[in-house]
Amino acid sequence: MRSCGSARNRTGCLTPIIVCFAGLVCATPARAADPDPLMGDYQGRWEVTDGYNSGDMAAQVIALGGGQYQAKFLEGLVVTTKPYAVIDGQALGGKVTFSGRLSPDSTPIDGAMEATLEGGKIAGRFEGQTDAGEKVKGLFTLEKTVRQSPTLGAKPPAGAIVLFDGTNFDKWTSFGVVKGVVNLIEAVGNVQDAAAYLRARIWSPQAQKATLQVGTDDGVKVWLNGKQIHANNAARGVTVDEDKIPVELRQGVNELLLKVTNGGGDWGAIARFVGRGAPVQNLNEISPKFGSDQGSREYLRQNNGFLTQWQVAGPYQEAGKGAGAIFDVAFAPEKADSPDVKWKWISVFDPDADKVKWPIVDGAMEVKGGNIVTKGRFKDFQLHVEFRTPFMPAARGQGRGNSGVYLQGRYEIQVLDSYGLDGRDNECGGIYQVGAPMVNMCLPPLQWQTYDITFRAPRFDASGNKTEDAVVTVVHNGVTIHDRRKLPGPTGGAMDDRISEPGGIYLQDHGNPVRFRNIWLVEQQ
């Protein structure tokens, strides 16, 4: 433990990055609406039992599902230092007991720590010895606290463009929706390390050869008329024609079966039959929507040939196996006439794909049904966005409250439930493959958070050559996490690479019910 009594960086006891809770409103006890009253921030003091030393201490408790928790013990809640300890615990009888080792990278004591979380308090002890062989024992007590951003609920100033006030999507449009993609998260649930099955029936007036184009997130196995014709155990996103499979369709009804695995993040599939460079024109889809036994090609014509009528079953999992391993596990839909399969019909035909489908819940927009972008295009601006990540204790990594705010539709500021994590470039506040936040300011899920972003577009000379990179400053929950960060080019998932042109504000759908509200922008001259 340290006796500095303030935040410090990895080089020693220095002036804090920010005095803990400066600019943040703190309140105790925890909110009555907490989905998990044990999860969240705790703050207090540690002291050595002989009284010779003491200091500030904090903890972040992360809910991991199934009564499991992880506690990260820190010098403060807004620090760049490594944690004193990261310890797992299990809930039993309304309390959680943690037991583990102190981290040698952050404290001079080589020893053990144990703690009990109960009734909004963490009480614990540590014991060990210093590098000099001195034995040390200490105690600590921490109490639950709730942080709140100082800009939460900030009113748009005079001249601001209000992009969302909680009532409508007049300033937004959907984009990037490929007609025919099956969103398996919506169909079977957001389950990682799982498989789902999709079945389609297609009527062909004659025996004919074609190419089956398939795109999936992640791996895929394909059967046509009961025969396996393709397998690709991949980790990837949906691309329309990533897998091209030569097939022979028989006259009459053909049955297509896909097995699609999910390792995390998005989960979807798309398929069509192509011949001579264009969708096969004489195929019909068979589903309850069409009265004829031979089905209809009505939706295929409007959907660029992509199948729209599917039966879906799942999700299927096997304990201890990830997506790559369950790829070769034969679940019930692969077994002929299995009585254990519960198929449900879905239709992905959407004639209004450009309209925003996101619901408005309690004055906030909730991510559901594709990406959205502002109709307006902007160059230099200040942007205020409030967001809330969902409570998904069983999810991990990119599957846990994933979305993103794209500046000019090209430069993403990550949105993710990264509470209590290290603060990397692919976590909340990060700019993927460009820079990690200077400090992880992510609050627990279901707490409203703020981004206050100042963006300056790249500059060009008269010949169109770029002379200056785009520059961004990001303030997350009142604390600067990127200070005039240069952006060398568009980040992954960008709408386009036309960086010399103004662009919109793009909010990303990653299949998680993230919410946004109170979005406004002030253009800069």
How would you portray this structure in words?
The chain is mainly beta and 525 residues long. It has three domains: 25-148, Lipocalin, CATH 2.40.128.120; 161-176 and 354-523, Sandwich (Jelly Rolls), CATH 2.60.120.560; 182-347, Jelly Rolls (Sandwich). The chain has helices spanning 184-188, 298-302, 323-326; strands at residues 25-27, 40-48, 54-65, 68-74, 85-92, 95-101, 110-118, 121-129, 135-148, 161-164, 172-175, 182-183, 194-204, 208-217, 220-224, 227-232, 243-249, 252-262, 268-275, 278-279, 284-286, 309-316, 344-347, 360-361, 364-366, 371-374, 381-388, 403-407, 411-415, 449-456, 459-460, 466-468, 470-476, 479-487, 506-507, 515-523. The strands form six sheets. An eight-stranded antiparallel barrel has the order 2-3-4-5-6-7-8-9. The chain is globular and about 90 Å long.
